[in-house]
Design a protein that fits this description.
Elements (H helix, E strand, L loop, with lengths): L9 H23 L24 H6 L3 E4 L3 E5 L5 H4 L1 H16 L10 E6 L2 H6 L13 E4 L2 E5 L4 H20 L6 H12 L1 E3 L4 E3 L14 H10 L6 H5 L10 H15 L4 H5 L10 H9 L3 H14 L17 E2 L5 E6 L5 E7 L4 E7 L2 E5 L3 E4 L4 E6 L2 E3 L2 E6 L15 E2 L3 E4 L5 E7 L10 E11 L1
Parallel strand pairs: 2-3, 3-5, 8-10
Antiparallel strand pairs: 1-2, 4-5, 6-7, 9-20, 10-19, 11-18, 11-20, 12-13, 12-20, 14-15, 16-17, 16-19
Helix pairs in contact: 4-6, 6-7, 7-10, 8-10
């Protein structure tokens, strides 16, 4: 969580900024009175670091606080020594060049360094003045300037995640600014905090393949549970998160979902990664909208599909939609090869509401490698189901010019074709086809089904 949010108008932004600086000045004044642990100089801390925080190390050590030292992080903790805790500075150091690469910052001669507190016993840190009363309520982690606070976690993964999340805030604050809207500020920290660490090598912006890789993280489940309860958020609702939204855990899942979509879809990635250049400008939101204006409907469609079908290991590349409008289906009909390893595929043909079409499908394709190859035909494999339908069965949907995926017969409510069916689409639009399978399990599929579509008089 970052201390300063984003206002929706220039006047609100200026008021919020003024309020933020007043609060920060008061916080610095209060910290100066905690002589036992902290001694800040007068004024606000410089954005790029500086000697604005002095640690009384002998006093902390006498109180049972350990010091862990890395090139980019000094961490003070009351936790006992363990391989996972003692590796945290190495993890942070390994993240620095990846932050630099992601944001286009030259790592040479950068002296950026953060200080942090990993807290097991909150009362002990509070007594030492290391949890000053001006800190806002936070559940797990918080950062200001070049200082971060983390409450200990029962999961080694989630402890690292919080460290990298707050480290991302610190990096962005130091090299860019801290005035982004909450969805981007927190979503970016979630994106780059989600990681893979094998004890030696670190990978940021990792898309977890299973919950076992990220114990206690739970971002996928946040979205799944909300959608299942009929409380899924639209793209616009996530973009409108206010500065206090992230006092609850739920918005972290939604902001991660949006940033991982924008970073994971190859058509959006370059534009999304260009956003940091606007962090020093008051029109960040307008620049974001301008960058994605031409593809706004596509982004809305991808957002709905992703959030309603979200799973660990979701393949954004395989699920990428092609929304080009189709041409009328020829009177004699047409054929389309449906690849088993891709999501919804645009056939290029337009169907009309109120008309009937005969669909026939043929072919054999592989839909899994579980104890051997699972070879399937268009009626699917009833030994296993995905979203209530046989795995591998052929599905169809029609996307109208203005329709969204949740319309009847649309991408969220497709028609089941199988090997043969007469279907009358409820709306006019472009025909899409796919093999029924999880968006996270398309990578091991191969082969195709040939689908023939003929108008019925």
């Amino acid at each position: 969580m970052s201390p300063i949010g984003f206002a929706s108008s220039k006047r609100d932004f200026c008021g919020l900024l003024e309020t933020g600086w007043v609060a920060l000045f008061a916080a610095l004044t209060l910290l100066a009175t905690s002589a036992r642990a902290l001694d800040r100089t007068k004024g606000a801390p410089p954005q790029n670091g500086g000697d604005w925080l002095t640690i009384d190390e002998p006093g902390l050590i006498a109180a049972g606080i350990r010091k862990l030292e890395g090139q980019r992080l000094t961490l003070y903790t009351d936790l006992p020594s363990s391989p996972e805790v003692d590796a945290l500075c190495r993890v942070f150091d390994a993240a620095f060049p990846q932050w630099c690469q992601y944001f286009g910052v030259a790592p040479e001669n950068q002296v950026w360094h953060m200080r942090g507190f990993l807290i097991g016993d909150r009362d002990r840190f509070r007594a030492l003045g290391l949890l000053p009363p001006w800190l806002p309520p936070f559940s797990n982690g918080f950062s200001v300037g070049d200082v971060l606070w983390l409450y200990d976690q029962p999961s080694g993964y989630y402890r690292r995640h919080l460290l990298l999340h707050e480290g991302t805030h610190g990096f962005v604050r130091a090299f860019f600014a801290d005035n982004a809207p909450p969805w981007y500020n927190e979503g970016l920290a979630e994106l780059l905090g989600t990681h893979h660490w094998d004890g030696q090598n670190l990978r940021l912006a990792y898309n977890p393949q299973s919950p076992d890789e990220v114990p206690m993280w739970g971002r996928v489940k946040i979205v799944q549970d909300a959608v299942q309860a009929g409380q899924g958020l639209t793209l616009e609702q996530v973009l409108a998160f206010g500065p206090t939204a992230h006092r609850e855990i739920g918005p972290y899942g939604w902001c991660w979902a949006l940033t991982v979509l924008l970073d994971g879809d190859p058509r959006f990635r370059d534009r999304f990664r260009a956003l940091p250049r606007y962090l020093n400008r008051p029109d960040f939101t307008q620049q974001f909208q301008h960058l994605f204006a031409a593809d706004w409907r596509l982004l809305q469609m991808e957002w709905l599909l992703f959030t309603h079908n979200i799973e660990y290991g979701y393949s954004f590349q395989a699920e990428a939609l092609d929304l080009r409008p189709g041409v009328p289906l020829p009177p004699a009909g047409a054929a389309y090869p449906v690849a088993a390893h891709r999501g919804w595929q645009n056939t290029g043909y337009r169907l009309e509401a109120g008309k009937s079409y005969l669909f026939t499908a043929q072919g054999r394709y592989t839909i899994a490698h579980d104890g051997g190859e699972w070879v399937c035909e268009p009626n699917g494999a009833t030994i296993r189901y995905h979203r209530g339908k046989p795995l591998g069965i052929v599905l169809a949907a029609v996307v109208g010019h203005d329709s969204l995926p949740d319309s009847p017969g649309g991408l969220l409510h497709p028609a089941v074709l199988g090997s043969s069916i007469v279907w009358s689409p409820p709306t006019s639009g472009t025909l899409f086809l796919r093999i029924n399978d999880s968006p996270a399990e398309l990578g091991d599929n191969s082969g195709m089904a040939n689908v023939f579509i003929r108008p019925r008089e």
